[in-house]
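Sample log: Sugar ABC transporter permease.
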Amino acid sequence: MKAAKSVILYALAILWLVIAGYPYAYMFATSLKDQSGFFRDPTGLIGKYTLDSYKLVFELGLFRYFANSVIISVICVGLVIILACMVSYCLARMRFFLNRPLYFIFIAGMMIPVHTTLIPVYILTREMGLYDQLWALVGPYIAFSLPVSVIILTQFAREIPGELEEAAIMDGAGRTRTFVSVILPLLAPATATVGIYNFIHIWNEFVFALILISTKARMTLPLGLREFYAEFSVNVPGIMAALTLGSLPLLIAYFISQEKVVSGISAGAVKG
């Protein structure tokens, strides 16, 4: 009975892998075709392959968009993790008058629609002289990433045994040393979850980049892909090559951190 159950579960897992993996396999296979090969067999995965589409998208500036997205994503995710860890430690471990109100403010922040803030953010960015600068995206990205990050990390921090912190304090460690040496290492699975979640969100973000960036040299990858689509509307292999390169950092980041992400989701789940 147990063997039959395992076979069914493995069969379902393989079926799901095929369903979920086929779009990526199709995208990659199509990116390796030339125009004539695609029109001869638009749905096939096997054919005569070439790297011409990749060469073309790099010649037309994809690397510039790619580098802009890497810079802004790494900076924003790093700052979000640092700020969210510090705030979460305070909310989870310290008792003060505004503890609960601040926690609920972060919950309320998750409910604010992004599109309702576009005009105020645009006006504020122009007033600060940051319009059409890559750094104009840092503020909005961090602001909209912090609420969910704080909620995840706070819930996870509350599950850490208080005895560990008490032992560190008894050994002479202050709040800062306890946070850095005891709490932060234990938050690693949750920070991986927060990092991957926010990296995916920031890497794919389009609306703020569209509103705050207008110069091609400062565009992020989503805006760059829109430019490619405008130029390659009939060059499907070229578009697929750009999409394949754009999705690689997300796949690599997830495969590297998937174990910590799963453990972070499981350990930080709200218990009923």
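Observation: The chain has 13 helices and no strands.
Observation: The longest helix spans residues 62-93.
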